[in-house]
Amino acid sequence: MTQAQEPLWTSADAVVATDGHATCEWATSGVSIDTRTIQKGDLFVALADARDGHEFVAQALEKGAGAAMVTHRPEGVADDAPLLIVDEVLPALEALGRAARARANARVVAVTGSVGKTSTKEMLRDVLAGQGRTHVAEASYNNHWGVPLTLARMPQDTEFAVIEIGMNHAGEIAPLAMMTRPDVAMITTVAAAHLEAFENIEGIAREKAEIFRGLEPHGVAVINADLEVSPMLRAAAQAQNARIVGFGTTAPDYRLTGIKLIDDTTVVSAQISGAPVHFKLDSAGRHFAMNALGVLAVAEALGADTAIAATDIGRWRPPAGRGTREEICLDRDDDDAVMELIDDAFNANPTSMAAALEVLAAARPKDGVGRVHRGRRIAILGDMLELGPDEIAMHAGLAGLSFIADLDLVHCVGPRMRALYEALPEERRGKWVDDAPQIAAIVYQLVDAGDVVLVKGSKGSKVSTVVDALRKLGQAARN
């Protein structure tokens, strides 16, 4: 429930929104599509995915769901069960999302980009939450069901809403943007990602720019000004009569003038409308600094106080798997026997890989502890997926990054990463293995106290299993 204990959806409101039929009067306090995480009072939406959600309606009601959205009464569900019967479940969820957007007097921002969508969304959460009631998408709920679900969950008294919009293929962003109707739309960057579905970077840029089609009248487009395709993005925004705000090293509005990475901190210098601004991030990363500047542009466009926002953004930390840093103690009898893990195992493309390696190069290993007695910077890198026909060259090209010279060892995981392994200077080569379980099984041999270890790769490379293996080294030390 909201703080005023008002329901999120009543049966009457849901019927009007979806043109459905309620079997009785009911009221719900949330919306769920998963019985594993459902909360008492939620409206359970019986979506069809790997399995038909109708198979779980009885379980959802047993767990305390306030009602269920279905196309029919499933077997095993009581005659008097609280149901919302609709023609099709996904279109009904979309209708519920559109109704939630229409009834809330919220200022809405939609975020897309090849890299940094989720991190930027979380930055916006931290910045806006201090200035009004803020509703933000969970996890990476940015697809054809995640966006309407996020909208349907939005309380009526929301003041700021942050919606993440993603895509894998052409034609996906525009319908979600028009459903969201953002007051502000932000594109973090356009990079080589999902190239299997697009002919080139320009094709990706055209699809990302579709987010501007959903802008409300007098909406604002916040655009990374440093990209080769930035003129394309600006043209698309102009076609929607949007006010354009640029951010980046070449932007006149929000200009980045300096970045300094100091271990796990980023010191940012910028000019906003010609006035100097300085702020810190409690995480290292040039990409984080860029996105933070864009976040300040969004905050101003939404009517938030940018001075307060610049202070609050310093408390932001990356979401799990996207550059989070943690210490792992490798010896229960020695508090100094600590290894630092940079977990960036959720996603990867050449742009984000370069950013992560720069962070590792700036990290400070600790000497005088462990077997080696000299702290090392170690990268464990998994395949970058969905890069199209030039994927092998893109993997090999990572060896040319200047940051490689500051690393001690690079271990490579997967058939595509073989190209990087062969291109690395011999003194930087660690091991190459065909898949993540192979390196997870021997990771205890590859790291030591004092090391800083980056694990990064596309989700499909499953290098998250290496992260799990590294964490278990610490658990074993405590047992």
Verbal overview:
It holds the Pfam family Mur_ligase_C. With 479 residues, this protein is an alpha/beta fold. The chain has helices spanning 11-18, 57-62, 89-103, 117-129, 146-152, 173-180, 201-208, 230-239, 286-301, 306-312, 350-362, 391-397, 418-423, 436-440, 443-446, 464-478; strands at 9-10, 21-22, 27-28, 30-32, 42-45, 67-70, 83-85, 107-112, 134-136, 160-164, 184-187, 220-224, 243-248, 254-262, 265-272, 275-281, 324-329, 338-344, 377-382, 409-413, 429-433, 452-456. The strands form four sheets. It has a nine-stranded mixed sheet with strand order 9-10-8-11-12-13-14-15-16, sandwiched between helices. The protein has a six-stranded mixed sheet with strand order 17-18-22-19-20-21, with helices on both faces. α4 crosses α9 (286-301). It is globular. It starts with 8 loop residues before the first strand and ends with a helix. The model has no long low-confidence stretch (mean pLDDT 93).
The count of helical stretches stands at 16
**Major β-sheet, in short?**
9 strands, mixed
Structural class: alpha/beta
CATH architecture of the largest domain: 3-Layer(aba) Sandwich
- Unreliable residue stretches: none
The CATH superfamily of the largest domain bears the name Mur-like, catalytic domain
Helix fraction, binned, reads: 25-40%
Number of E strands: 22
Number of domains: 3
Q: State mean pLDDT (0 to 100 scale).
A: 93
- Which band does the percent of strand residues land in? 15-25%
The CA-CA distance between the termini, in Å, is: 41 Å
What is the CATH class name of the largest domain? Alpha Beta
Radius of gyration: 24 Å
GO molecular function: ATP binding; UDP-N-acetylmuramoyl-tripeptide-D-alanyl-D-alanine ligase activity; UDP-N-acetylmuramoylalanyl-D-glutamyl-2,6-diaminopimelate-D-alanyl-D-alanine ligase activity
Catalytic activity: D-alanyl-D-alanine + UDP-N-acetyl-alpha-D-muramoyl-L-alanyl-gamma-D-glutamyl-meso-2,6-diaminopimelate + ATP = UDP-N-acetyl-alpha-D-muramoyl-L-alanyl-gamma-D-glutamyl-meso-2,6-diaminopimeloyl-D-alanyl-D-alanine + ADP + phosphate + H(+)
Keywords: ATP-binding, Cell cycle, Cell division, Cell shape, Cell wall biogenesis/degradation, Cytoplasm, Ligase, Nucleotide-binding, Peptidoglycan synthesis
Domain Mur ligase C-terminal: 340-458
